[in-house]
Amino acid sequence: MKKSKNLCYLVCIGLWLWGCNQTPAQEGTKPAAAAARAGKAVTLTIPNHPLRDARDLDVLLQQIGDARIVLLGEASHGTAEYYTWRAAITKRLMQEKGFDFVAVEGEWADSYRVNQFIKGPRRDSTQAVALLEQYNRWPTWMWGNYEVASLVTWLNGYNQGKPAGEKVGFFGLDVYCLWESMTELMPYVKNNPELVKAARQVHQCFQPFSADAMQYAEAVANASANCRTETNRLWKTIQSQSGGAAQTEAQFVAEQNALVALNGERYYRAAVSSNTESWNVRDHHMAQTLTRLLNFHGPDSKAIVWEHNTHVGDARYTDMASSGEVNVGQLVRKEYGEENVYIVGFGSYQGTVIAGSSWGAPMKTMTVPPAVPGSWEQILHQLSPTDKIIFSKDLRDQKTLSRPVGHRAIGVVYNPKLEHMGNYVPSVMPRRYDAFIFIDKTTALHPIQSITVRNEPPDLYPSGT
Question: Would the pTM of this model clear 0.70, i.e. be above it?
Answer without folding.
Answer: yes
